[in-house]
């Protein structure tokens, strides 16, 4: 056992795992399986003091440190320290205050299930098994976003360990600069051990999806865009286009077809929801209809995203509008003729997302009208092909682009890419705060903000 592991083993209540030891591979593996990282040591943290011990040891031995909750990002450098927080999954709900304290490794599913008995819900995303803390650090555009805004706008406090190994509490009144940076600036400023968030009075939604065969309804993406032009803020929607493989495990109507899945989450009655969705039904034949009144505990069925870990990459743009030519290019990227399986995801923004919160945060580009993401599984020898398909799909959107979302960018971004996620003045402020809180570059975040100077 090396000196770093010896120091950690003496202080950590959880497990300390080295390459080749039982549990190491399981602990370092997350949902994202492309380029699996090999840290020199994994700290399976059981509490905030374990996190502090890991930060202190990494700094003393001059090793970079990364954090993994549910593992949808992939940040741990080879030879560094990986802090796995998945055992820190406690959630405490205060129904009177409509708040929840959420530990570092809790997923949105943990929070949803804890809040539901009180008629409350968090501003969770489309996939409930994503880690709540890292999702929120990146802003967070969820199923209720047009009505309630970004998840990060609803954080009341962060508990964290900064790179100087200090336990801190960041709120709008204490550590206001750090609080601002954590609300949208990513994991560049400390290791969050827990956060207190506001909950909203939601127990049920009218939600689900309508599936269309793109061959029979070729203008479905543009039809969805036109439909979003005049919707109430209570309705948040998206559309996903892809070509399904012809496999028996898939629903029969979808097999072997290029399908556009329009996703709906409406905060209102089923009757009003059906009325609002009726123009979509008129676009053409519906292959499958899963729209219904449902408890928020089943909100993951709206997008019904794959739940098996796999290797993938994505690129994202935030745009002012969606021109028909650009939508045609996106549909082509998701067509059967594409050299790699490509999933195109569009999200309707605006509403509360466009308004400044009561307490400012680092989230950028609130003026964006839509989010556009292209994602592909990556097989052996497909990296360059995936990169080129994604580049070509997003190229027609360049004139409408205002920036990008860090949360929808699954893969490494260069400095210009990270910069594009923020307003220029905010990005410069983030670099100064990185220099203040992490001058030696200890933290290895998924999307790195460099230190100024």
From TrEMBL:
Necessary cofactors: FAD
Keywords: FAD, Flavoprotein, Oxidoreductase
Gene3D superfamilies, alphabetized: 3.30.465.10, 3.40.462.20, Uridine Diphospho-n-acetylenolpyruvylglucosamine Reductase, domain 2 (3.30.43.10)
Family membership noted in the UniProt record: Belongs to the oxygen-dependent FAD-linked oxidoreductase family.
Protein name per UniProt: FAD-binding oxidoreductase
One Pfam entry name: FAD_binding_4
Organism: Thermobifida alba (Thermomonospora alba)
Keyword Oxidoreductase tagged: yes
Transmembrane segments: none
Residues of the FAD-binding PCMH-type domain: 34-202
């Amino acid at each position: 056992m090396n000196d770093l592991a010896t120091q950690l083993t003496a202080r950590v209540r959880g497990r300390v795992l080295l390459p080749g030891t039982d549990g190491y591979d399981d602990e370092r593996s997350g949902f994202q399986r492309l380029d699996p990282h090999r840290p020199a040591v994994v700290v399976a943290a059981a509490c905030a003091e374990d996190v502090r011990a890991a930060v202190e040891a990494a700094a003393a031995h001059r090793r970079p440190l990364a954090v993994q909750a549910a593992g949808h990002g992939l940040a741990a450098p080879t030879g560094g320290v990986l802090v796995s927080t998945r055992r820190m999954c406690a959630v405490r709900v205060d129904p009177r205050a409509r708040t929840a304290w959420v530990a570092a490794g809790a997923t949105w599913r943990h929070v949803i299930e804890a809040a539901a008995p009180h008629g409350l819900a968090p501003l969770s995303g489309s996939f409930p098994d994503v880690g709540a803390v890292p999702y929120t650090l990146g802003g967070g555009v969820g199923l209720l976003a047009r009505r309630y805004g970004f998840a990060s706008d609803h954080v009341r406090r962060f508990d964290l360990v900064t790179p100087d190994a200090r336990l801190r509490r960041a709120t709008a009144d204490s550590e206001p600069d750090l609080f601002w940076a954590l609300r949208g600036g990513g994991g560049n400023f400390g290791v969050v051990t827990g956060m207190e968030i506001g909950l909203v009075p939601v127990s049920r939604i009218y939600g689900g999806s309508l599936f269309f065969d793109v061959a029979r309804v070729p203008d479905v993406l543009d039809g969805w865009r036109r439909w979003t032009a005049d919707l109430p803020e209570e309705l948040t929607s998206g559309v996903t286009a892809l070509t399904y493989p012809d496999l028996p495990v898939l629903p029969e109507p979808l097999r072997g077809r290029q399908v556009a899945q329009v996703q709906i989450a409406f905060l209102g009655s089923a009757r009003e929801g059906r009325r609002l969705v009726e123009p979509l039904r008129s676009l053409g034949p519906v292959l499958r209809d899963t729209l219904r009144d449902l408890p928020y505990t089943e909100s993951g069925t709206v997008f019904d995203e794959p739940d098996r870990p796999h290797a993938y990459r994505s690129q994202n743009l935030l745009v002012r509008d969606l021109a028909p030519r650009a939508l045609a290019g996106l549909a082509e990227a998701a067509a059967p003729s594409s050299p790699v399986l490509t999933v195109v995801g569009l999200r309707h923004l605006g509403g509360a997302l466009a308004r400044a919160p009561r307490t400012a945060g680092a989230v950028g580009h609130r003026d964006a009208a839509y989010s556009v993401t292209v994602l592909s599984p990556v097989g052996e020898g497909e990296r360059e092909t995936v990169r080129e398909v994604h580049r070509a799909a997003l190229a027609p959107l360049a004139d409408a682009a205002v920036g990008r979302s860090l949360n929808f960018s699954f893969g490494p971004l260069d400095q210009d890419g990270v910069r594009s996620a923020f307003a220029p003045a905010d990005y410069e402020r983030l670099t100064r705060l990185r220099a203040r809180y992490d001058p030696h570059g200890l933290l290895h975040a998924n999307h790195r903000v460099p230190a100024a100077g």
